[in-house]
Amino acid sequence: MTEIRLEVGYDEYEEGTRMEQLIEQLAAKPESREVVELTIGSWGQAYEDGPDTFMDTLIGHKDAFPALRKLFIGDMDSEECEISWITQTNLTPLLEAFPQLTSFWIQGSTGLSLKPLKHERLEELVIICGGLSKEVLADIRDAELPELRKLELYLGVDNYGFDGGLEDVKPLMEPGRFPKLTYLGLKDSEIQDEIAIEIANSPILDQLHTLDLSQGTLSDKGAEALLASERVRKLSFLDLNYHYMSNEMVKRWQTSGISVDVSDQQQSDDEDDWRYPAVTE
């Protein structure tokens, strides 16, 4: 039993089942010591209640999960709770409780905090949301994650939580902040062109094998800067899927010799040039 998913369905919640009960039941089984990946799905009324309702229970039973390496908090679909409605909290106590974690995934950003963000072994941090606040971006900027290899952030839009700007994202492009980082995802953004132009010639590209700028509002403007960059050409992979580039620009990428994903081309509103990231509400 290496991968476990816990979730409370609507009917179960109405009948009185709570996530903390499921955690206690799992922790009581000898098999809990073999759990490598634990995914927490819907905990019932996530639009009102955050992980505070069960986090203390999970931390209290931390010794029952000595093999735990990957933890995902908030894996639920839109029928269970829209991504922008998922209530989160300060999740750093979980990182403190599980010092052997190598992967931490979070879905939803309402009320999310990662302060202080410190972990000696974490290699992967992924936050999926409709909008990431500048406070959380600052938490990540100030983090002490010496083993971090992959950082994937859905930046989103201002209507659903993104209240920052390029100045809040730029620190994450600084080389050496995370010395072992090889995968950087600054994606699902309404300022994807600005990010692309800023990072196109950043020295951080020299340490990356993958740059992920997918699922955002990238247009020819940002793509032009990327295509002109010698540093971009040295990447092992560039992910630009879900974009607003023209047919001509897509063809230029396809003949560039760069390993790049330019699938899922979108069309903007012809009158007002409205462009939307893939994940918002």
From TrEMBL:
Positions of region (Disordered): 260-281
InterPro entries, alphabetized: LRR_dom_sf, STM4015-like
Protein name per UniProt: Cytoplasmic protein
Organism: Paenibacillus elgii
